[in-house]
Amino acid sequence: MPVTINGTSGLVTATTFSGSNLSGIDTGKILQIKQGGRNDTASQSTSARSHWDGANIQVSITPASASSKIFILASTCYTTSNQVNNNPVVLQKKTGSGSFANITAANGADDGNRLEVITSIYQQSTYHISPQNFHYLDTAGSTDELTYRVIYYNVSSNTRTIYINRFHSDTNDTSTVRGSSWIQVMEVAA
User: Fold this and answer.
1) What is the 3-state secondary structure (H, E, C) of 62-86?
2) What CATH number is associated with residue 161?
C-alpha cells in the first residue's frame, strides 16, 4: 500500500487497502461461522433441581484443525412458571457421536452444592423474560463435529415449567413480548 507524506503540510495519504491479497497471515482468520437456535416458543415441566436439555438452543461445527479456537456467543431468553431466585444457564459440548458434558472451564468453579453455570439472572416475576448473554473461547481439540448447546436449570425445590422466548403468561396483547434465543460459533485459526 503506497503511502505519501506531504513534507510541507504533514498530510499523510494512502491508497485504498484490500485484505483480499493478504498472505502470510496464518492465525486469527475467521474460518467459518455457524448459528443455531430458535425464534419460536417452547416449554417443559421440569422437576425440582433438575435441568431441561431439550430446548434445542444448539449449533454444530466441524473444525478444519484441532488447534483452532472456537469462539462461542449466545443470547437466550427464558422464564419459569413461578418466581425463583435464579435462572441459570449451563454451556455443554459434544464431540462427534459422544455425549454432551458441561464445559468445566466455561462454567463456574465447583464449590460444594453450588451449581456451576456460565450465567444466571434473578427472575423478578413471571412477567419477566430473563435475557442472558455470554461468550466463551474454546479449543477445538478435534476435527470431529462439535456441538455446543445451552441447558436450563430449575433451581426451585418444586417442579416448575421453563418457558423459552416467552413470558409465563403469554397474553395476546401489545404489552406482551416474545424473544429469540441463538448460539453462534466461529472457528478462528490458531
Assistant:
1) CCCCCCCEEEEEEEEEEEECCCCCC
2) 2.60.120.1340
d(CA 179, CA 183): 14
Q: Is residue 114 part of a domain?
A: yes
Q: Using CB atoms within 10 A of its CB, is residue 40 exposed (0-12), middle (13-18) or buried (19+)?
A: exposed
pLDDT digits (tens, 9 = 90+) for 106-150: 888 878 888 788 887 777 666 677 788 999 999 999 999 999 999
Buried-exposed string 74-107: b where 16+ CB fall within 10 A, e elsewhere: bbbbbbbbebbebbbbbbbbbeeeeeeebbeebb
**The C-alpha cell of 76 is what?**
437466550
CB 62 within 8 A of CB 70: no
Q: What is the pLDDT of residue 62?
A: 98
- Residue whose grid cell is 463435529: 145
The answer as to whether 22 is a domain residue is no
Tell me, rounded to whole angstroms, the distance of Cα 156 from its chain centroid. 24
